[in-house]
Predict the structure.
Amino acid sequence: MADPFSPEKRSYTMSQIKSKDTKPESAVRKYLFSRGLRYRKNDNRYPGHPDIVLPKYKTVIFVNGCFWHSHEGCSNYSVPKSNTDYWIPKLAKNRERDALNASALEKDGWKVIVVWECELKKKLQAQRLERLYEEIVHPPSEKSC
Ligand SMILES: [Zn+2]
């Protein structure tokens, strides 16, 4: 058997992968929408261009790939064994940038929620999304200062 994908199918698949509306993000968006939440997508006005912005709840959500965002302790994340001179600083830089973006947003009064790609696997997704909704709508009471 030759390549199971026709060239058309393959380029379609690749374009899906490259598109901004990646699958894990759209799963989160669809769910929140179905629960009646309205949001903005990939808003360039905020540090790190959060995937989902919920102005009403002063909440931003990042849907992070475990590899690119160094999900510590996650089985999807491991430093590549070759080209380590390239990857280690690159991944460290991503991580640093994520932290800076999050603290800039928090300083502005935003709540920052990270949803990891691995949390959106079929088995875990429903539970994670339910929890996410609760985090947005009923955040654990915080002391006001
Ligand atoms: Zn992960």
